[in-house]
Amino acid sequence: MRREDELLTCLLGLNARAAYLKQVEQILSGSSVDWQYILNKSYREKVYPLIYRGLKNLNGLVPLSVREEFKRKYYANSLSNTLVFEEAEKIIAKFSEKNIKTIAIKGVFLAEHVYKNIALRPMSDIDLLIAKDNLKEANLLLNSLGYITPDSYFDFLKNSRILPLNTLMYKKERPFKYCLHLHWHLVNTTWPLEDLVSRIDMFSVWSKVQSTKIGGVDALALCPEHLLIYLCLHAFIHSFDNLMRLSDIAMVLSSYAENLDWQRIDYFSREWGISGIVYFSLALTEELLGLKSLNSKYTGMLKPGFQKFIYSYLAKRGLRSYRMCWLAFLFLQKGFSPKLRFVKRSFLPSSLILAHNLGLPPSRIRPTHYLHRLKNLLTP
Fold first, then answer.
1. Is the pTM of this model over 0.85?
2. Strands of 217-221's sheet, edge to edge?
3. Domain extents for the chain?
4. What is the pLDDT of residues 140-170, one digit of tens each?
């Protein structure tokens, strides 16, 4: 690991434990640090607000120009998030008027209640979860707020089959550009994970939600155990494409601390059939964010054997790979036929799923779109 990467890990650790301060000072007292690398990577990994908070504890050890650049990005994110929060409050309040129960997931909930500072968690959109039975009324309410009905809305509204894709993206251009992901299930992916969708009992999820507030508006939140499992699954589905996804997991672990019921986490993970995925996500969080005390809490989720060995080995190597995650989901399929079907539908999904992935109406999907998908998936 290069020194700059070690420094990034330590600065993220500063947010939870001041014990890293001495290690950071030792790194900075050595040879020169490539601050441009740290700036670029922290921005790409979407952890720059956390790095900025860590840098504020290092007066005199960080070049002024570097601190000013982080400060600029931090306050720009704070302003952007403030606008997102104001919009989220309007939507949740509008839904509440019509008795549409709304769970705030990911960004807006995590920023306010887990990070406890809305400037610390970058957000580009709003993620809300409702019951699918409320989709038609929710669409009308969003129209009244200036959001445009997505092209695939009617296809999803009429669809009664189990799909791995369970969200609609609403956009609003004025007075600012807003993007809302309206979910009705915790699984949302273009990978063919219908079996996983069917294993997650959303009635059980809704029965365990907790009351919360987004800004000054009443809303709902996932119970801590479901929240942690969901974030692990979500990060895995996205192949851990940025450290913010692991930071979300780490901050939930820190925020709820001893209040997390690890027996329930183990039970729900097994019930949903994703113990290995949750195990790997936690192991990777431990490895890349330096949470050395975490191991004793999740290590019993998998019995000793090949699966545990492989996941532990890959986590120790800090592997974040699209193909690795795809293979993990492939091996979750029970039997040869389900595995073959998973491969086929990975490369040749339904027109509804491909259209969503490309941002097109399903009616505009052509064979050339499938050829492009095959090329992109097979290209190293």
1. yes
2. 167-172, 178-183, 126-129, 103-104, 217-221, 210-214
3. 1-62, 76-378
4. 999 999 999 998 898 888 888 899 999 999 9
